[in-house]
Amino acid sequence: MRRSRLKRKASSVRATPLQPQVGGRFAPLTAEKLIDITNSAFAILEQIGVGGAPPDIRSLALENGAGERSNGRITFSRALVEDMIERACKRVELPGFLRERGIEVGGGRVHIGTGGAAVQVLEAATEIFRDSTLEDLYSLMRVVDACDNIHYSLRPVVARDMTDPFVLDINTAFAGLKATSKPIGTSFFEPANVAPVVGMLDAALGETSFAAQPFCFASVCHVVPPLTLAEEACGVMQECVRLGMPLQICSAAQAGATSPAALAGALAQGLAESLAGLVLVNMMKPGFPCILAFLAFVSDLRTGAMTGGSGEAAVANAAAAQLLLNLGLPSTVSAGMTDAKTADAQSGYEKGYTIALSAQAGADMINLSVGMLGSIMVASKEALVIDNDMCGAIMRTVRGVELLDGSIDLDMIEQVVTGEGHFLGTAQTLDLMTKEYLYPSLGDRQSVSDWLEAGALTVWDKAIARVSEIEALPAPTHLPGDIEAALRERLPIHLSERL
Question: For the chain, N or C: smaller number of CB within 10 Å?
């Protein structure tokens, strides 16, 4: 009888999306290690500095108190860096195109999102890996729009059918704009492309200005590890500051290759590279909305290749989140970067522990965490919806155990143990079914016999069906048709109008 009762309940209860939760309970670094690594990062900036500064960035830095070594490397004293940390924006508001779908980044509020620049997609129907296209980019971000546990979408794939840099940048931003009303992120090939994209986003909002509702952030890799500034990216950064596009500035050193193999050393270098970017942004404009993407990549030392699904990557990114949370700075880390090529058991366990550790450590944004396969070289819509389920459960663990009024009710326990002998029908159980418990959309909780009777569907089978359901729904309509038509008339938009 109990099994049938539970089966009826399961069919009538929907998965409840969780709002962003505050992490930070997991601390992979002891207080002593936290201080040592942070001090080492300050020492790297003061003693070693950054190379490759373009002339205008060099002038900006020197005019604002930086030093210069005889070899041309720009150095930043600890006092200067601490002053810039004090000036920095501590909470970054990222509204959606529909403002209410926005997020607040900072303080350990955990958000799940896409990211990366995969160059292939896995076709579910054919199981073929092929080059990613503009339509794939749109389709992936449209799936994100329908996933309750994914809070933002930074472009997950490169539209490889767009060969001109300007056309690529315009269409990358447009695909995100059209696909979802959640906050989006884009990237730029060169500084000159920032203004046209911002102009497009501004026009898309109609009467509201992009400056008032900056629903798109720029992901900018300002540094080429180890400790070398990227000229084009620095120019992009300057343009974004000038035009009011929020920044997510990235350091993605790979331990054992472009940063020391010792994780502590890699973390010190990565923190230094992140802080160098923060210093420059706040020299350009104090308090400008800037999120530090401290992506602690790791090498498989047997081959030198990047491994995103390793235990080392999991703990390194959790530590990166802890380091930035300790400084009070908005953070992004990388997780979910499985090395598996399909959504198999390896994919599940690698994504599970890497994302869970970063979330529990209080990463404000977790890039690359959903939909990625093959060490972030491949994206999959079906993996995306599976990961949405997984991230809901992970966010539930971040929420933790709550002690609310009535949580511990001795009278209720007395009534149950002297009465029916179970808690299934109590008022508390019924009240908390959708408040304290989360239910998977794709994960299966049936008995083995019921699962067999229902067709023995795997989570991959269900994911294929779920993606088909999403794509059969009417396309998002937040971008008004007349505005879209005007944008298509004046810009080289290549995304098909039928989508």
Answer: N
Read off the tokens for 255. 């331990």
| 10-53 pLDDT per residue, tens | 444 555 566 778 988 999 999 999 999 999 999 999 999 999 99
Residue among 22, 19, 20 nearest 108 (CA)? 22
User: What is the radius of gyration, based on Cα positions, of the chain?
Assistant: 24
DSSP 457-491: --HHHHHHHHHHHHHHSPPP--S-HHHHHHHHHHS
pLDDT in tens, 64-85: 999 999 999 999 999 999 999 9
Residue found by looking up tokens 């502590």 in the block: 264
Neighbours of 348 (CB within 10 A): 16
Sequence ranges of the domains in the chain: 86-399
Single-letter code of the amino acid located at 181: S
Residues with Cβ within 8 Å of 472's Cβ and at least 6 positions away in sequence, in order, are none
Q: Are 448 and 368 in contact (CB under 8 A)?
A: no
- Please check whether residue 298 is in contact with residue 330, taking contact to mean a CB–CB distance below 8 angstroms: no
Q: For strands 228-229 and 247-251, give the pairing.
A: unpaired
**Rounded CA gap, 462 and 442, in Å?**
6
Residues in the chain: 499
CA quadruple 74, 80, 85, 89: dihedral positive or negative?
A: negative
Average pLDDT, the chain: 96
Superfamily of domain 86-399: Trimethylamine methyltransferase-like (3.20.20.480)
